[in-house]
Predict the structure.
Amino acid sequence: MKLKHFAAAVALIILPGLALAQTGSTPRVDKRQDRQQQRIDKGVQSGALNEKEAARLQKGQQRVQKMEDKAMADGKMTKKERARIEHAQDRQNKKIARQKHDKQRVK
């Protein structure tokens, strides 16, 4: 039951920020952020991610989102900024996969 409350709280915190982020001109980055967020949410729902794992992954997602927000502060994203963000997303992607497929489960 705690896990459902945690997932709901995370969704309430993250989703408005993602909606605001979508107003920029970075659809590729935003779409990937959404897919990774969905993977985290599904991991919580299935029990593949426990609360601590999900919280750590959420923190990583927020860090990537802050990078994107900072890059878009001037209204456009350079190739170098995009490469840094995509590299951060790659690392986050691996972390999500690693945590979802480890032996820790919610019982």
Q: What stands out?
A: The chain has a mean pLDDT of 86. The first helix runs from residue 2 to 21.
